[in-house]
Write a structure and sequence with these properties.
Family: Belongs to the thioesterase family.
Pfam families: Thioesterase
CATH architecture: 3-Layer(aba) Sandwich
InterPro entries: AB_hydrolase_fold, TEII, TesA-like, Thioesterase
GO biological process, one term: lipid biosynthetic process
CATH topology: Rossmann fold
Number of strands: 7
Largest sheet: 7 strands, mixed
Strand content: 5-15%
Number of domains: 1
Mean pLDDT: 88
Low-confidence stretches: 1-6
Order of helices and strands: EEHEHEHEHHHEHEH
Protein name: Thioesterase
CATH class: Alpha Beta
Structural class: alpha/beta
Radius of gyration: 17 Å
């Protein structure tokens, strides 16, 4: 498995490099997530798309770095890191917290005059939908309980004290960033948006996912998959086909 791009960029991982592909997909992980979460999607796209996945500070090989506690700073730094990869059309895919980071990075690219050609917003309410969540204010047991509820982390990892000690600080940073994020209903991008959600997601209803419609001036569609918050783990072939259908020729 290739875990880094040839330049050793700490922010970007390429698992199946396709530098000559006509389009590039940029993947943004969820709270507590790492770039490797997107390895299966990258494999399914089969090298026909140049897939790059962001590695936020504080996880895996960046575990010694402090986590970032605001979406604004995370988006600023991701936007800067992606500048060398904007030599061809970019499509963004974000899951959960990653959907909001992708949205904010898209805003920054559009401010510079060249935004992504499409945004996939997976498993996240619309940017202006505030739910008053407070996971970042809970004790460690409360954060672990939330991770179990969302069923996105192997229980064996949650039962390993050494691993927990490593991941809890960055989880708290990520939850602080996403739960203190605010956007107004008038905050929009021009890129088309496809909102994705699982039909039993405990955090996002189809109606809440559909509210992304108000945050783009371009086309919008909603896709509902069977499953919970991490529905995509069981829907990789279907997801890869959907992504391909939205990429520029």
């Amino acid at each position: 498995m290739t875990t880094a791009c040839p330049t050793g960029d700490p922010w970007v991982r390429r698992f199946h490099p396709a530098p000559q592909a006509p389009a590039r997909l940029v993947c943004f992980p969820h709270a507590g997530g790492s770039a490797t979460f997107y390895f299966p999607l990258s494999a399914a796209l089969g090298g026909t798309v140049d897939v790059v996945a962001l590695q936020y500070p504080g996880r895996q090989d960046r575990h010694a770095e402090k986590g970032i506690e605001t979406i604004a700073e995370l988006a600023d730094r991701a936007h800067e890191a992606l500048q060398p990869y904007a030599d061809r059309p970019l499509t963004f895919f974000g899951h959960s917290m990653g959907s909001i980071v992708a949205f904010e990075v898209a805003r920054r690219f559009e401010r510079d005059g060249e935004g992504p050609v499409h945004l996939f917003a997976s498993a996240r309410r619309a940017p202006s939908a505030y739910a008053g969540e407070n996971v970042h204010q809970r004790d460690d047991d409360g954060i672990i309980a939330e991770m179990r509820r969302l069923s996105g982390t192997d229980d064996r990892l949650l039962d390993d004290e050494d691993i927990l000690r490593m991941i809890l600080p960055v989880l708290r940073s990520d939850y602080t960033a996403i739960e203190t994020y605010r956007a107004t209903p008038s905050t929009v991008i021009a890129a088309p948006v496809t909102a994705l959600t699982g039909d039993t997601d405990p955090r996002v209803t189809p109606e809440q996912a559909h509210a992304w419609r108000a945050h783009t001036t371009g086309p919008f569609d909603l896709r509902i998959f069977p499953g919970g918050h991490f529905y995509l783990s069981d829907q990789i072939p279907e997801l890869a086909e959907l992504v391909r259908s939205r990429l520029p020729a």
